[in-house]
Structure formats: C-alpha cells, structure tokens
Amino acid sequence: MNRRQFIEFTSLILAGGSLPLKAHSAEYQQQLFALGKNFIQQPVNIFTPAQRQLVRRLVEIIIPRTDTPGALDAKADHFIELTVAHYMNPQEREVFVSGLDGLQVGVLGAKSLDKSLKEKSLEEKSLEEQIVERLIQQLTELEERHSDAPWYQLGNRVGNGFDSSAPFICQLKELTVVGFFMSEVGATQVLRHNPMPGNFDGETPLATDQPSWARNRPGDYS
Q: In 3D, which of 67, 104, 32, 27 has the Cα closest to residue 209?
C-alpha cells in the first residue's frame, strides 16, 4: 500500500466518500470532498461477526472510554474494517485477518466470542473480564515478540512512510490511533480543536497534561 495514498484517502473520513480503486486523481478527490458521503458511514462487511466483535474489544483496550471518549465512540472499529477492506493490499490484509484469528483462538480456542458468551450467559460479566484480561496478555506478548520490527523505529508517527511488513500488533495500534484522532470525536473532544486558526507557531510549548492540537482540517497532513 502506498502510504501517501493512504493518508490522502483517509483525509476523507469526515468530508469524503467511498473511493473506487481507480480514483487517484486530485480532481476526483475534490469532488468527493464536495459531494461524497461521510467515509465512516460507508457500509462494509469484510469481517465475520466474531472478528468484528473482537476488533471492538481491541480498540476499547487501546483507547478506552474514561472521562473522555474512547475508540468505540469514534467508531474506530468501523474505520479499521473499512481500511482493511479498501486500502490494504492482499498481503497486508492477510496479516491483519490472521492476527485477529490468532487472538481469537488464543483467548477462546476454537469457539467464537459470540458462541462462548451465549453458552456462559450466567457468567457474562466475569467471562467478559476474563476475555479482556486474556486479550491484554496476548497483545503484550505480541508487542514483546515484535519489538524489533521496523515499525517501532518510526516512532509510531503517521507520515513517516508505511511499512508493509508491519506485524499485526503494529497495524492494529496504528489504525486505532489514526481512526480515533481523525474522527470528529477525537479531534473536537480529545484534541484541542480551533475551527478558526490563527498564524502558525511551530514552537508553542505544551504542558505535560495538555493534548496536542487537532489538525485545522481533519486529515490534513500537509
């Protein structure tokens, strides 16, 4: 996947639309800004119900809802499914889907999350807690296993070039963060959003408890 194309296309999250594979021209992108549907509202059905439920749990673990919105509030799970369906090449998609399946098997064996919850409905709360704890353990193990991946050398910063060899854990973390902070929820309720920006100041100090500023236009990486 071309990283520049990925960044350009994800800038359509709030104002853009579904993008045909052949639509790479700036003119077409401008038309989508003006006429297209909200990207995050587009339907997608590449994941199984069990995979979709697992992604919801994973993004909530990465950016949980606290006194500020979490990844689920920003529909980061849906953003991930859209990205896997439309912007990943077959090899990248295989890495991601295999990673999901590996987590599911590692947590519940061959059973799906849905089936397991139904079979143990009387213990749903405790079972859910056990699932989350096991997922956190699995994610930690994945991070340790892939700690020397080139992706980590990029400083986890979007815009430094996409590494198509990135392991599943890196794909998951990056897509969750991108989907969250490029959403209206992430940009306006977590980042500091200024709809009428003034002059650029590249040396404004931030206190340790201050979030970064949202982009003037969601998805603008210029």
A: 67
